[in-house]
Amino acid sequence: MRKSNLIFLVVFALTLGVLIYWAYPIIKERYFTNDDSSASQTDSQDESLPVEQSTSSTNVPGSGSETPTKKVEEVNQTVTPQKAFEHITTADCGNECSNFEPNTKNFEYCQEICGLASKTELPTNDCQNLSNLKKDYCLKDEAVAKKDFRLCDAISDTGVRQTCQNRITEDLLNQEPQE
User: Fold this and answer.
1) Calpha distance 105→45 (Å, rounded)
2) Whole-angstrom Cα distance, residue 130 to residue 140?
3) Alpha-carbon distances, residue 155 vs 33, 36, 103, 134, 146 (angstroms)
4) What is the rounded distance in angstroms from the CA atom of residue 8 to the CA atom of residue 35?
5) Main-chain dihedrals φ then ψ at residue 9, nearest 5 degrees
6) What is the 3-state secondary structure (H, E, C) of the chain?
7) How confident is the model at residue 113 (pLDDT cuts 50, 70, 90)?
8) 146 and 68 in contact (C-beta within 8 Å)?
9) Which pLDDT does position 7 carry in this prediction?
10) CA distances from 48 to 42, 45, 123, 133, 137 (A)
11) Least confident range of 16-25, 52-61, 163-172
12) Is a pLDDT exceeding 90 seen at residue 20?
């Protein structure tokens, strides 16, 4: 009986050791990372984004001669991955972005991420002429209106892209089944 208890204790200790060995990096990364560096670089990221220009001289944006799929392909070629402009939490969304000063880029970004911003209509509905976050917001609005995930993939900001995908998913799930 004593020998079986000793074997059980050794096996339990080894199992616990292996579990801690594999779980520690995951827990450390998830709960103990500090993202202060991304918050301090927020303003410089927005200004340092390159202004993208159209590579095709035959297709004039807004002329209606190109298909939406072709637009998405062109946008996908020029998009470079970018971190989120600002880290927005559910607490920020819960208090309607009151932690940010009104009429600032961070406030506008928070409202876009939380779905609190009013949709801005562009007269030509052409997002290619815009740059940086304005382009991302425009692409998000267009993707949600068309329920097209491919347009979300063209968004460079990770936060806006995630919001776009979530909004389309919610809209698709909330649709009434047609009989």
Assistant:
1) 12
2) 13
3) 26, 24, 23, 10, 15
4) 43
5) -65, -40
6) CHHHHHHHHHHHHHHHHHHHHHHHHHHHHHHCCCCHHHHHCHHHHHHHCCCCCCCCCCCCCCCCCCCHHHHHHHHHHHCCCECCCCCCCHHHHHCCCCCCCCCCHHHHHHHHHHCCCCCCCCCCCCHHHCCHHHHHHHHHHHHHHHCCHHHHHCCCEHHHHHHHHHHHHHHHHHCCCCC
7) confident
8) yes
9) 93
10) 10, 5, 27, 12, 18
11) 52-61
12) yes
- How far apart (Å, rounded) are the C-alpha atoms in residues 147 and 113? 17
101, burial (CB in 10 Å: exposed 0-12, middle 13-18, buried 19+): exposed
Amino acid at 28: K
To which residue do tokens 């068309």 refer? 146
Half-sphere exposure of 28 (CA within 13 A, CB side): 6
Residue type at position 158: T
Give the start-to-end residue ranges of the domains of the chain. Answer: 68-179
For the entire predicted model, the pTM comes to 0.44
CA atoms of 27 and 47, how far apart (whole Å): 34
User: Which residues have C-beta within 8 Å of that of residue 65, sequence separation ≥ 6?
Assistant: 59
